[in-house]
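Let's practice the habit of predicting before peeking. Look at the sequence and jot down your guess about where helices and strands might fall. Then scroll down.
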Amino acid sequence: MKKTMTKLTTLIASSAILYSTATGKTEVDIEAITETLPNTAKAISIDDIKAAQEMWGNAVVKIGASGGKAYDAAKKAAKTAYAFELGAIQFKPTLAADAPFRPDLEGTLSYFVAGNDKYPEDKGFALKPWTKVRFDNHTVKTFGNKAIAMGHYYFTDKSGKETKVEYTKGYVKMDDGRVLLFLQDSSLPYSKG
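Done guessing? Here is the structure:
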């Protein structure tokens, strides 16, 4: 049975379209979120997502272990992991309040390795250093060559302590097979007080 949908509003900032079903439930139209991304014949798979997540986690660890070459390691990792070639990305870092959205390479690099006067709050998240990053996907939804994953990732520091972070990440599989992030929203879990 086909749902009757009424568009409520368009959220320009996140490119999402919300709609209300006949029962009054509000949902996100994933096609509206990703309509400007390339649509290839290559479908994205759960294994593609897991490989991209492992690559991203390993890159965060490598950046922290790179010492004086951390900026170069971060730049290479960011260009490999994020879909900057498609235009502005949607990146909301975990520990960013004054400039919470980072749509470009410059803002992304500042978050991971600091040193940019435009983002004085940045301390260099990847410079901790972390020794391991582990993903725990709660859900992954695939739509052709695009996917949205939500869950927790755990960052392990040198003492073995894990920091739990919540994420929503959007991936697109390119014509050449690369899987890139176009969306990343990370936050610390809500504290009840």
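How did you do? Residues 1-35 form one domain.
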